[in-house]
Write a structure and sequence with these properties.
With 386 residues, this protein is mainly alpha-helical. Helices cover 58% and strands 6% of the residues. The protein is built from 18 helices and 8 strands. The longest helix has 14 residues. The radius of gyration is 21 Å and the shape is globular.
């Protein structure tokens, strides 16, 4: 399974506003950039929509903030939590309406308020009906609502308008994967890699699709390649952590999830992975099972996902079972199974097994696959990043 919000966050390229006191410790803050911002590297200047957003401030140099690909002045950024209100004021003044609707839409998208995002991005498209970026962003919002058919339609239109829109290809592949259309998903990622063989996101997404197809050596090769190309990609660490769990290497899985958590503290997937380890580790890793830690991680995953991801709810159920609270385990597992997300179909038998275990007063133990014959080594860049 692909971890949706991680993919969305990794691919966003847009917008932001509001300056904060210079005394703020900016490193680690999640920010947007103002519509008037001019990100730059040396003498090279970019447009505000060239910066992947929301961005995390990685370092500070005087008045300048490094947002991963470019420097931006402190007075040209605002905190993510302040963004919707800023753009609402901008719209009230009647200035830069298209940009303001789009920027506010991205702010809502980043905060997982998908209905508001769709409303604003639809308005932006009414004003600029041929804007491929707006179609791509609205597709992400539909994806967040698990409306995969509408999401695919928007990504397809974005590609029609701009056949070079690799972000739309990547995201269309993620949607197709969520619908269990693995071969079609692979076609999207393969197209991206044909055009851009060094596209780390496509390698990470294709690695996750290979995993779902039980093509485990291919999966690990793609995930390691993604981390060679982008040693700070949280998504690739999350998906590789899942690979290590499946193959019984729990220390490596735990390390990958913690690395992802450090890189993306606002994403739910790393917390969910750690919760699964502490709640469901197999018997040969019994020492890792810890109900208290499992509950802490699972609850945080549910909060960050706005209680909208069935996998997080299922992990919470497993954590309660490991803690001995089987009534709560049954309650939350039942809720997880009732959440109508197509991706869960492939896990239906496992979900039913869990529910029966909890009803009989037993905790759940993961089953692992036999490891492949060879495992591609880490790159030197990745080892240094860790």
């Amino acid at each position: 399974m692909l971890f949706p919000h991680c993919v969305v966050a990794a691919a966003l390229a847009v917008f932001g506003s509001r300056a904060v006191a210079e005394s703020r410790d900016w490193v680690g803050e999640t920010v947007m950039v103002k519509e008037t911002a001019t990100p730059q590297i040396g003498a090279k200047r970019f447009r505000w929509n060239d910066v992947p957003l929301p961005a995390t401030v990685e370092k500070v140099n005087g008045q300048w903030l490094w947002l991963g690909i470019a420097w931006v002045k402190q007075d040209e950024v605002l905190l993510l939590d302040d963004a919707p209100a800023y753009y609402t004021k901008l719209l009230a003044r009647g200035t830069n309406n298209v940009v303001a609707y789009a920027l506010r839409g991205v702010s809502w998208l980043s905060k997982r308020e998908y209905d508001n995002a769709i409303k604003d991005l639809t308005e932006a498209l009414r004003l600029e009906p041929s804007n491929t970026t707006f179609f791509t962003l609205r597709g992400k919002a539909y994806y967040g609502k698990h409306n995969y058919a509408r999401a695919v339609a928007d990504f397809t239109e974005a590609i029609r308008l701009d056949p070079a829109n690799l972000i739309a290809y990547n995201d269309r592949g993620v949607c197709l994967n969520a619908q269990n259309e693995f071969a079609k998903a692979l076609e999207q990622f393969n197209e991206v890699l044909r055009v851009d063989p060094a596209n780390a996101l496509a390698h990470a997404n294709r690695g996750a699709t290979w995993f779902d197809m039980e093509e485990y050596p291919k999966s690990l090769a793609d995930l390691n390649r993604a981390l060679q190309l982008a040693p700070k990609m949280a998504l690739a660490y999350v998906n590789r952590g899942r690979w290590y769990m499946k193959h019984g290497d729990y220390p490596e899985a735990e390390a990958d999830y913690r690395r992802a958590m450090d890189l993306a503290p606002r994403e739910w997937a790393p917390y969910n992975g750690l919760g699964r380890i502490y709640a469901t580790a197999p018997e040969f890793e019994f020492h890792l099972r810890d109900g208290k830690q499992a509950l802490e991680m699972a609850k945080r995953a549910c909060e960050l996902s706005h209680w909208d991801e069935w996998v997080c709810v299922a992990t919470l159920a497993a954590a309660y079972a490991e803690s001995g609270d089987f009534a709560s385990a049954v309650q939350w597992q039942t809720k997880a199974m009732a959440m109508s997300q197509p991706a869960k179909i492939r896990d239906q038998k496992d979900n039913e097994k869990r529910l029966e275990l909890y009803k009989s007063g037993n905790a759940y133990y993961e089953e692992v696959a036999a490891p492949p014959a060879t495992s591609p080594p880490q790159s030197s860049n990745e080892a240094e990043a860790r």
